Amino acid sequence: MGYHICFIQGDWLNPTVWEKFERHFKACGYTCSVLSLPDTGEQGWYRVLHGKNGRSSPLKRLVDFYAKQITAFPAPSILIGHAMGGLVVQLLLDRGLGVAGIAIAPRPPQRVYPGILSLLQTITARVERLDGMRFLRMSPREFSRRVAYPGDQFATEQLYEKFVGRVPQNLMITAAMGVGGRLLFTQERGPLLLISADDDRMVASSVVLANYFYQRRSLAPTDYITFPGHGHLLITQPGWEHVADRIIEWLQQQLGWF
C-alpha cells in the first residue's frame, strides 16, 4: 500500500522550511506534499482563522483546515509537523486521521506545561496590526538566539530572510494556554514519534519528553528520540539528513516499506 507524506507548517516559519525534507523523502521514492495556508502571509492566516464558526478556538480552526486537506488525498497520510505543526499532528492523530505521525520539536497539547522559553517568546514578541488582526513578529536577534541556535551569524541571517513570517497573536496565546489543544484519547490512533533537540531554545527537550509521557496514555505505539547538538531548526540546519533518515527508519519499523 502506498502512503502520502504530509509536511505541516508550524509557527513563525514559512512552509519553505520543509524544502530539504521534501526533496530527501522524494529522492527515497516517497510521495510528498507540503501543506500550507490557502494564501501566503497574513491573508492566509486570516482566511483560516476567521471561519464561520466563531465559537471555536483558533487552534481548532487550524486543525480543521488541515484535516480537510488530508482527507482529500486518495492514499493514507503520514503526518510530519514541526513546532505548532507538531501539535497539529498530535490533534489530527487524536481524531483518527493519519496512519502515523511525527511531531518534531512540537508545541505540547493541553495539560502539558509549554515551558518558560516558549511562553517568554510569545509574551515578548513585537505586535503588529494587519488586516484587522494582531500578529507577532520575531526580530532577527530573537531568531538568532532562540530559533536558529546553534548556528553561525551569516547562515542565521540568510535563514531569517528566507523562512521567518508573522503569526497570529490569538493563535499563539490560546495554544500556549491549551485552548483547543485537548487530547481526548477516544480514537484508536496511529503510531506517534516525538522528536526533540537537546539545544532547542523554543521548545525545550524536557517539554517534549513530558509530552511523550502524556501521550503514552494511548495504547498506540509512542516513541521519543532526542538529537544532541541540534536546535529548534533541526529540519534544515546541518545534520538534518540524520534526522530525516531516523524518521524513515522509524516509519519502516512501524509500517513496513511504504
UniProtKB/TrEMBL annotation:
UniProt-listed Pfam families: Abhydrolase_6
Gene3D superfamilies (UniProt xref): alpha/beta hydrolase
Residues passing through the membrane, by range: none
Molecular function GO terms recorded: hydrolase activity
Segments forming domain AB hydrolase-1: 10-238
Swiss-Prot/TrEMBL keywords: Hydrolase
Superkingdom per UniProt: Bacteria
Protein name: Alpha/beta fold hydrolase
Organism (species): Modicisalibacter luteus
